[in-house]
## 1
Amino acid sequence: MDTVWILGDQLNRDVGALRGRAPAEARVLMIESATKLANGRWHRQRAHLVLASMRRFAAELRAEGFEVDYRTASSLPGGLEEHRRAFAPDRVLAMSPMSWDAVEMLTSNGVELSPNEQFLCSAAEFAAWADGKKSLKMEDFYRWQRRRLDVLMDGSEPVAGRWNFDADNREPPPKDGRDWPAPIVDELDVLDAQVAADIEQLCPDAFGEPASGLWATSRTGALARLDQFIEEVLPLFGPHEDSMLRSEWKLAHSALSPYLNLGLLHPGEVIKAAEVAYRTGRVPIASAEGFIRQIIGWREYVWGLYWLWMPEYGELNALDADQVLPPAFEGAPTQMACVAHTVAGIDKRGWSHHIERLMILGNLSLTAGVRPQAVVDWMWKSFVDGAEWVMVPNVIGMALFADGGRMATKPYASGGAYIKRMSDHCKGCAFDPTKRVGETACPFTTLYWDFLARNEEVLRPNHRLGNQLGSMRKLSDLDMVRQRATEIRSRLSAGDL
């Protein structure tokens, strides 16, 4: 009998080697790697989401009649070898994993791989689209996806006459804060309690609050959250998707990425639900288009770039950034209100939305010169939707410009003025976003100008930075700014800011 190996981020009955197979036709293998869990500082809710979801999926397969060999082993190859000794399968089959190293590991251990089906554009299709192009712009890929998938299209033209409504989706947070739909929270059960106890044993350096029921660990729970998002949240999504509020951690973001990344939801069903909501008049076009762009545009673009450029891409460091990860990211006290709030949210939920990741955590790491690989590793283990294929392009290319501009056309660096405009964090903060020198100068503002000066030679050819570099050269206090920036970088690395 064949064995179908289901990895922890492939929890879907209808994809890969398991799709269409009856219980009598294959045995299922699932492995928890004790070494991986013990390696590094995992957020408790990230570990809980993966382990509880795996165990529930195994129970569902057993209820369907499958024989499931679910085991904890020192490593994934070790668990595979134990399974082979116990069952002597004719073949071990698996859907292609979602990381470069995992593909290498499975193929070197004789596992037969089928293409990954958890995306709407395969790595091979993306490579064919990219072939011969001088630049790989996400907008071009997104429009190609819209056409070939026939999403939000009226014949050969985009619905409502425009491809992109992003200009309508950049409003600052509403002054009244607004009431946002409360997230679904499930009651924890016996399985959850066992997983929580196991995490304390298996993950000695685990951090963050334990699971609260906020994150679904079954397909049923994931579908409930998709339904709530479409009906209650998506109508509000568009205008404020780039906003940040102290009083509201999620705003109108879907928070569906953990379920998409584990296989509990498939992108096809998610975008179909959003399009139906638009076409039936329940959701405005700016909200529907903006959300669908995140799924079939940005998410699948990142997936494609990962497979196109790895493994060398993960080691890039074009700006020679060498600072350590700020201790503030791991909970050290900080006077920076926006950083303190974002990190507290990660500790509480293992999640923050994309603007907090890019324009607070990423922006600070970029302008301070933090080593990119340290940021990748921290984000991968800290966020419930962490995955190497997600974090490597988003951090190396988008947030830290460590690829020198292969992915993003300019560095996403900004001073405190952006944070003041798009959030309410600056009110009451110890630092003033309008100041670049002095004890109360906002670190984001000081580091922004220093970043431009420190990297001027590398950034000068970028035509999108001409005005910013010109303004930097005109600063009468640039020497004082750079002196203050040296102090800030030192204090940031020491956890004293």
## 2
Amino acid sequence: MILSPFEWTIAKRYMLPGRGEAFIALVAGISLAAVMLGVAALVIVMSVMNGFRAELIDKIVGLNGHAVIQAYGGRLDNWQGLVDQVRRVPGVTHASPLIEQPLLTTFNGRVEPIMVRGNTAGDIAAIGAKVVAGRFADVLPGAGNVAIGSRLAENLGVRVGDAITIINPAGRSTPFGTVPRQIAYHVVAIFEIGVYDYDNTYVIMPIVDAQTLLLTGDTVGMIEVRTTDPDTAAATLAPLGRQLAGQAVITDWKVLNSSLFEALAVERVAMFTVLSIIVLVAVFNILSSLIMLVRAKTRDIAILRTMGASRRSILRIFIAIGSLIGVLGTVAGLALGFIFLFFRQNVVSLVQMVSGQDLWDPKIRFLTQLPSRSDPVEITMIVVMALGLSFLATLYPALRAASTDPVQVLRYE
């Protein structure tokens, strides 16, 4: 909506506080601040929620692949031929054997539950974890070397070069019963994935060492599969699933982590709905400030009408005033939201320091840092919603102003 010079002059005059109009200006300022805070809250929360989902997908899918193939009974005997078969499926970019087994480890009298993960040499280097100390390259088959998560190393008090003992309760049978199998391994690398559960439990070793530890022979627990598109992994592997019916089951990452991502999806919708109410409240402030302005300017409007101003001009003036409050509040909210996101970790640290509370416990939050990822589509939706509601809030006061009858207003002047 483009205003004429006359309309723009009147709109600017009405937006600036005049004598006796400080309260109206205060209400308008509160309306602008409310829109700003509502938009900022939506931008911050939705970006953090998107960051949660994206980081979890990147880390979980990056570690466990897009899908896994597991045999009924938990062991794949003919895994070499099956790996070749999977690699020939269109859309599959990678397939490799994998062993995962919960066990126990001990060091200097400390005992911790762990998840032993047996990978091929290429997959160990491709996990994508941040190496805190040591080198993944030293995790060699038959060398008795392992890599452990940073939180696990902290709990055990382990450093690179120390030897930990891994205990397999399902050991060898003897005349005196089953003797747990205990093997010492040298820690040659300490890694950090960024997901608390992984950093707190994972011990990575070559797959041949895992087979020796678990006494499984030349078998594996599952086959890890990566495809060209994680979101279509189930459809890509559907033909293979029909071929393996009765022998093995294929599970994609969405099913493996369904409860987590469904909870995040529901929370995203709930948070967007709740925070949108803040913007709605701000819009009602715009409505009330414009109604007050129209009542205060009734005589001025009547004089403008007698001087030749059309109803259309009056309508456009008051729509422009309310819409400008919405635009300024939305722009300020976007700026505030992005500034907060840029310094989000500093803000969390400051609040923790002031309150004395641990607001970001990785045991609860899964991730070690507050994530953020802004979605341009969602940002656009927030802006459109804020501007749209601000525009709708101007219609009633603007129509009331445009319908002012100068004869009735000025009859006793």
## 3
Amino acid sequence: MPDFKKFEDLKCWQAARELVKTAFLLSEKGKLKTDRDTKSQFRRAALSSMNNIAEGFGRFSDAEFIRFLDIAQSSAREVKSMLYVFEDLSYLQSDDIQLLHQKTDAVLALTLGFIRYLRKKG
């Protein structure tokens, strides 16, 4: 692993943090605000992405770290899937959904890129 001293240095974690912030703020808008179960699942999926990157950073091997990064990217895909429900049910405005797609895509790209890096170096 490059000389990362802390998980906060990881670009994928930084992108996931941005996704979490946006997910939390936007989940207080539109129909999503009143659907407690869906709002909770949406927030937990975004948090899972960010927190699994952090948790994996503390593991002792790249293989274990990759396992947590894989969980993180899967959680980001869950967020992305939920955005289609929000669109289909008009839970959020289309601009908000597009912003969430962009932030989720950034998390996915950075996390998958980091997984590829760790696999190549191993």
## 4
Amino acid sequence: MKFLYKKVDNSSLIVFRIVFGLVLTLEAWGSIFTGWIERTYIEPSIHFSLIGFEWLHPLDGLGMYYLYGFMGLLGLGVTLGYYYRISIIGYTILWSYCYVIHKISYNNHYYLMILLCFIMCFLPAHKYASLDVKYRKIAKETGMYYACKFMLIFQITCVYIYGAIAKMYPDWLDGTYTSITLASKASFPVIGSFFTEKWFYMGIAYGGILFDLLIIPLLAYRKTRLFGFILSIAFHSFNSIVFQVGVFPYLSLSFALFFFPSEKIHQLFLAKKPFFNTESSSYNSQLTTMGIGMYVLIQIALPIRQHFIEDTAFWTEEAHKMSWRMMLRSKHGSTYYKVKDLTTQKIHYNYAKNLTPKQKGMLNTTPSVIWQYAQYIKHEAAKKGNTVAVYAISKKSLNRRKFQQFVNPNIDLANTPWNFFNHQPWIVPFKGW
């Protein structure tokens, strides 16, 4: 592990800090100005947190607006390198809070931002071109340990490699999913007419796998690096414009900073900065090595946990999160509840009319939300002094197949505990590809 402690020029990390800080600011303030906070936190009458974090709730009134506004300021603090440690640690905590209190608007880049913020908490990204150096008398440095570069390259490699592996399933390989997704975008100007052509959606299917598998090697190898970067620009621009997937494409492009030679990054962005000549270092922290090793093992293990859980994650959604399973399936469903009063034996039906359309869409297809709403019905009944059993009548369609029964209608979900580490036995098995 000695290579981790070799000192190299830090130009790439300094520029990445500036770009990453801008992304953090845009993500926070963009949520305000696009109405996302209104739709996500204000309009819903109830909220679905990650299971286990039900004790956390969104702030009342305008609280979430103030929170996201403050996060934008912390993002600027990261960009400018002003009180950098406080800014990045504060953003990490607040963004993690926002991540766990709602899951209806889940996006993979929300999780990626948590991980990157966590990594950046430990990196000396403010040691040059920062207000900390200028005003707070932080020692200026032009070098960094290679471990800084390694952690960020490792993280984006996980995203791509596991993203490619997740695509290797029947409905992706035969073009079923890409044909469905692109058909919904057929009205797109100029090129939309191609989206329903088989050669196009099959090209996107296999091109997506090849891109995810090969982009890191292409960027890492000197002779193919420029081609890989141009390919990245084309790939991420297409995703950004056609699918509107937020800041992820631009965040992904910024990782190219760590693949190009430090001399090139130095010349392009920080020409006035003294260039740090590579040298070996005697520094070797066992604690740091253990920390890096543990982080690497966790990030390798989380995406493969799905293979140790019964049935397929495409159907059950179990182990879907934190596994880089991005834009993989189309799902539709219908769910309502049979509620039985255990004292009077009377039965009535609940159609979840108090949910927003997006919440209802998740309820119809996501087991954790189905279970949580059953708990909500139970708790609302308890407020009135009633004890109830709650049964979900749910059907689901995966990639436009015929609807299949999704939840066992004979299981009382209100009084069934959530299994955190294994398959939920009340999910009806998928009938196959």
